[in-house]
Amino acid sequence: MATQEVTMRVWRGDAQGGAFREYRVPAGEGMVVLDVIHAIQAAHANDLAVRWNCKAGKCGSCSAEINGKPRLMCMTRMNLFKPGETITVAPIKTFPLIRDLVTDVSFNFEKAKSIPAFKPGPKEADGTRRMFQEDIDRVQEFHKCIECFLCQNVCHVIRDHEDNKKYFAGPRLFVRLAALEMHPLDTNDRKQLTKEKAGLGFCNITKCCTEVCPENIHITDNAIIPLKERLVDEYYDPLVWLLRKLGGKAPEGR
Amino acid sequence: MASEIKYETHEYDVIVIGAGGAGLRAAIEASAQGARTALVCKSLLGKAHTVMAEGGIAAALGNVYPEDNWKVHFRDTMRGGKMLNNWRMAQVHAQEAPARVLELEEWGALFDRTKEGLILQRDFGGHRYARLAHVGDRTGLEMIRTLQQHAVHKGIDVYMECNVQRLLKDGERISGAFGYWRESGKFILFKCKAVVLATGGGGKAWKITSNSWEYTGDGIAMALDAGADLIDMEMVQFHPTGMVWPPSVRGILVTEGVRGDGGTLKNSEGKRFMFNYIPEFFKAETAETEQEADAWYEDKKNRRTPDLLPRDEVARAINAEVKAGRGTSHGGVFLDIASRRPADYIKRRLPSMYHQFKELADVDITKEPMEVGPTCHYFMGGVRVNADTAAATVPGLFAAGEVAAGLHGANRLGGNSLSDLVVFGRRAGLYAAEYAKALKASPTVDAGRIEAIAQELLAPFSGKGGENPYTIHAELQDCMQGLVGIIRTEKELKQALDKLAAFKQRLMKVSVDGNRQYNPGWHLALDLYSMLEVSEVATLAAIERKESRGGHTRDDYPKTDPKLGKVNVVVRKRQRELQISQEPLPEMPDDLRKLVEEQK
């Protein structure tokens, strides 16, 4: 593919309003959408706001909706599109717009603060921490998360219902909770938080989050469903329920 | 126009600028010491350059080779750095790295495991034993996330997307820092007793680079302007293996772990050329034949493969092969792991390399070789610091990580950066907090100075010269790539100085569109100030060092000069003028010198 001109429709505007603006720029071999955005900045719009860092799919900064699909701009090749096709780039929808392609994602950082920290149990007698690869494989999958928040963006619980944000942490934080819950060394109990403050029950496993994850984390199958099962065991197991009754500690519902 | 400048003010004991591994670790430590601590970063938390680190963190844990210990790690680091290292930093680093790695594990990090359930370690260039704790090829992500999650529970105030531009002083002491919020463009003042710089390097001044937009040398420029000494600025590491094709990905890093896990470099004739580039300095410990090199992967009693010579050696070799016409059609060489290791092994050990080549270059690394070539990667030079306390030469200023200099000497070994971040990040936080505690009264800031800085920062909006910051940046990158690259000559370095002077003039005429709200054009115009300053210092230092050593190769002085091996090139600013000098390295004690001089 030699250099050819491409037409891009890019959202320009801020919280007060805005519109798509069209730019025509040359695109060379191997270019990704982020390269083209940079070309627009350099030639036509110095002030076009966009977040990016690594340009290699490792930092999760450049999330956007490209032709309506939530993607990382740095990992979306231009040759994915038909020659001559106009490519539309919009900011991710679920979070408040700051400017152009940049949104206010502080929701995610606030929710992260509410999750109780990792708390390891005692060390082995020889002073080491022994864990076996097969016991950490599943947690390492969760640790691949680059916090691009695309899963948060597509989750319909908060995408279409702003009010739910107060009660719902979203797939990214469920992955974090699952990582802590399944960490072989962790001793903290976050089940009540998962149920009550993080709102795991809102999730009806439509798997939209899994589909958009650029790290291919099986968010629904490996994180959310096992978390749901743990809650069921804890809160709805008849034996546990009976013991709790006898102990006088009834679970608090929301 | 005077006195219309508005800014918010915050007061702390310690502010840490930069939230990669060093900044996070410094903030955690300063806060643990009871200092009121703020962490200020240009990007969102968790996006700093550390997140891109791939191969691992070097620490002589001895989990894979019990023979390994801090002395061997110290020796490897000094030899890799061509003896220009600050010996005390190299000692502290080698001694403390294992504790810092185990601390990450205490905070929730999950490194890959040995069969016995301990932290697994992998081979890397210049390390005698398999020494790098790692998580596949995404070790930096594990590290930054672990530190980030630990920090948020420690009550540290985090200022994200907040860009510090200048340091403030009260007499000789640090008294604050001034910058702007990226989101709103509004100004912000930090009054503080101590500043920890953890801002990384300045590789974004080069065209082919593994560095992100953040790497504009801010911390180095701020320290220089505040009167601090810089050392070793001529020492820029070109990582031997960056992607070369397609053009849009040129420079993106390909981890040394590929070679650590069995990959080899080949030229267009299919020859493993590294055997032709073994320098005298490493001859005794390097394999001479392919059989011997391959045997090393199985048993470290054999001599090491030359594919894993230190990075400066490998980068120069690749450069020479391409120049001799034995490169690939895209101007790189081949890096082949496909023919040497099974596909499932490659995918397990190098998942993000697999993904990166598949997605960005249509190359399946389990079936085909990669095309690679050198990419500007790391500044060994930077702010001169006290080896134990990480204190710069200005009272109240501390520096850790890539922005600081000394540990790596003339060339950094892979894996020694992540360990540098946590070892010296912790020390910087500790000693900054101690310094702040000992300071009775808070230093004051000069309102007139703040007013002047603010006017300077706003100048691009009223600039009528019509210079485009993106154009200046692109030309600067061409200049540094072409004239201050891997192989240098006096003539070209002087040409670079002339060009840099012209860029500085043009920067005065820069004008930007739009308003102050999240405006990348304005941000770049401001970043150009530090990129130009850092480029000038690097070029001056490169002219001063008339020899070839580590990351600094002079075509006109191709040999090492033992006399220059005993000095640092020091740059400082006095009355707005750069001064350059050669100052002796700290003298290494005899017992350590013996360790380093051992041949095998």
Give structural notes.
The complex is a heterodimer of chains A (254) and B (600). With 254 residues, chain A is α+β, with helices and mostly antiparallel strands. Chain A is 35% helix and 15% strand. Chain A is built from ten helices and seven strands. Chain A has helices at residues 33-43, 106-113, 133-143, 150-154, 156-159, 171-181, 191-196, 208-212, 219-236, 238-247, and strands spanning 4-14, 17-27, 63-66, 69-72, 87-90, 97-99, 102-103. In chain A, the strands form two sheets. In chain A, strands 2-1-5-3-4 form a five-stranded mixed β-sheet. Chain A has a two-stranded antiparallel ribbon with strand order 6-7. In chain A, helix 3 runs antiparallel to helix 6 and helix 6 packs across helix 9. The longest helix of chain A has 18 residues, at 219-236. Chain A is elongated. Chain A starts with a strand and ends in a 7-residue tail after the last helix. Residues 249-254 of chain A have low confidence and may be disordered. By secondary structure, chain B is α/β, with parallel strands linked by helices. In chain B, strands 1, 2, 6, 7, 8, 9 and 16 form a seven-stranded mixed β-sheet that branches. A five-stranded mixed β-sheet of chain B has the order 17-15-10-20-21, with helices on one face. In chain B, helix 2 crosses helix 3 (87-106), helix 10 packs across helix 11 (351-361) and helix 15 (490-508) packs antiparallel against helix 16.
The parts of chain A where pLDDT drops under 50 for at least 5 residues are 249-254
Structural class given helices, strands, pairing of chain A? alpha+beta
Give the strand line-up of the largest sheet of chain A: 2-1-5-3-4
Q: Multimeric state of these chains? A: heterodimer
User: Approximately how much helix is present in the residues of chain A?
Assistant: 25-40%
Question: How many E strands of chain B?
Answer: 21
Number of helices of chain B: 17
- Total strand count of chain A, please? 7
What Rg of chain B is obtained from the alpha carbons, in whole angstroms? 23 Å
| Spatial gap, N to C terminus of chain A | 58 Å
Note the main sheet of chain B. 7 strands, mixed
The secondary structure category of chain B is alpha/beta
Indicate the mean pLDDT of chain A.
Answer: 92
Radius of gyration of chain A: 22 Å
Globally, the shape of chain A reads elongated
Biggest interface, and residues per chain? A-B, 59 and 65 residues
Helix run count of chain A? 10
Average pLDDT value of chain B? Answer: 96
Please give the share of residues in helix of chain B: 25-40%
In whole angstroms, how far apart are the ends of chain B? 68 Å
